[in-house]
Amino acid sequence: MTEHNNNAAAAQEPTSQFSLQRIYVKDLSFEAPKSPEVFREEWNPNIELDLNTRQRALEGDFHEVVLTITVTVKTGEEVAFIAEVQQAGIFLVQGLDDASQGHALGAFCPSILFPYARETLDSLVVRGSFPALMLAPVNFDALYAQELQRMQSAAEVQA
Fold it and tell me: Which domains are seen in the chain, by residue range?
């Protein structure tokens, strides 16, 4: 009898589930304000990279996560090009505690989206007749940990 009750209790416990539902480009932008002149100059680029993530709850246990990557490339003081992608995904996140869900949405999901965003940016930049960016991998776990630390420090200052 006890075994039957244990099995019934185990069947009623919420199980955690994580699955990718869809990956898509939400927004895409490319500007080359100094073309065609930039193609006649020596190519000595200075690359600025800006990463940002955001998420929002959808219906049920679905969440949209958006990874925004903005790349500004300058030669000297002149902007050669600006490329930006908002790579998004819909994820099912179910049965996780708050800390685990925060990590999944803040670090794991952007890690999944990053290769798609990198490929999209490379393709876009090459179509603009510039060399591919070949962005290095990003440690989203470390960035998430830094953001948690920053938020904790800010909360301590306000307290």
Answer: 15-154 (3.10.420.10)
Give tens-digit pLDDT for 83-115: 999 999 999 999 999 999 999 999 999 999 999
Residue 62, pLDDT > 90, answer yes
Query: Distance (Å, rounded) from C-alpha 68 to C-alpha 66?
Result: 6
pTM of the model: 0.85
Angle between helices 140-158 and 109-127 in degrees, nearest 10: 110
| Residue 19 CA from chain centroid, whole number | 16
Residue with more model confidence, 51 or 159: 51
Closest by Cα among 82, 66, 83 to 120 = 83
For tokens 């996140």, name the residue. 93
Task: Name the residue among 55, 76, 66 with its Cα closest to residue 114.
Answer: 66
- Contact (Cβ atoms closer than 8 angstroms) between residue 31 and residue 82: yes
Higher-pLDDT residue of 9 and 64 is 64
Of 114, 22, 104, 35, the residue nearest 67 (C-alpha): 114
CA distance 133 to 47: 9
Measured in degrees and rounded to the nearest 5, phi and psi for residue 17 equal: -145, 135
Would the pLDDT of 11 be above 90? Answer: no
